[in-house]
Amino acid sequence: SSELTQDPAVSVALGQTVRITCQGDSLRIYFASWFHQRPGQAPTLVFYGQNNRPSGIPDRFSGSTSGNTATLTITGAQAEDEGDYYCNSRDSSDNRGVFGTGTKVTVL
Amino acid sequence: QVQLQQWGAGLLKPSETLSLTCAVSGSSFTNYYLSWIRQAPGQGLEWIGENNHAGSATYNPSLKGRVTISVDTSKNQFSLKLTSVTAADTASYYCARSIWGRHPPSFFYYYMDVWGKGTTVTVSS
């Protein structure tokens, strides 16, 4: 299957920890990458590979994978972390790119 | 610093061809793929396709043969063409640099690290 499924929305209190999950068969062989998107802006890569953050991304962003599920964790969420988060991988059968359904994160 | 600058027509009529170009600066064209992604208003991200300097293209089957991504290595540019557009093709279109490979022993990695700012394309009669 090429689908990557995410919870539609999660909320987190300022300074607390939030976990965003992404489920899909391709995650058994592909590490997910994760994007943050604010309204009206292009997505920004926040985590990729087994354990990689692009330059400039705070270390409160971390990722993990287990079986068919990838998880992005924000430890100590800040107001600027609000927005939509998308996971991304490749379909393990036809090799095309695929995005998750997206999770809207609200910081209370 | 790698940058992607994209441009193209923002208003099309049904049945016309969407044409966008993305120029890459600050990086060689080799060792990575160049992708197009779109986002319809209020919707999620949709992967359109990718190509590399060797012309190895892959497309989203949902676009049913309407899409072509070409690469001009002499200009460090790549282009998207989508034929026979309809209102369903109204979206923000993004170009992005993609990197993927093996992570031994049994995993692969894949990510898009640099994105263009996006081009809003509206299809309306």
The averaged pLDDT of chain A comes out at: 96
Q: What structural class do you assign from the helix and strand content of chain A?
A: mainly beta
Structural class of chain B: mainly beta
Shape of chain A: globular
**Poorly predicted parts of chain A:** none
Q: Output the radius of gyration of chain B.
A: 15 Å
Structural account:
The complex is a heterodimer of chains A (108) and B (125). Chain A has strands spanning 5-6, 9-12, 17-23, 33-37, 44-47, 61-66, 69-75, 83-90, 97-99, 103-107. Chain A is mainly β and 108 residues long. In chain A, the strands form two sheets. In chain A, strands 2, 4, 5, 8, 9 and 10 form a six-stranded mixed sheet that branches. Chain B has strands at 3-8, 11-12, 18-25, 33-39, 45-51, 58-59, 67-72, 77-82, 91-103, 107-115, 119-123. Chain B has 125 residues and is mostly beta strands. Chain B contains no helices and eleven strands. At the A-B interface, strand 4, strand 8 and strand 9 of A face strand 5, strand 6, strand 9 and strand 10 of B.
Condensed summary:
The complex is a heterodimer of chains A (108) and B (125). Chain A has 108 residues and is mainly beta.
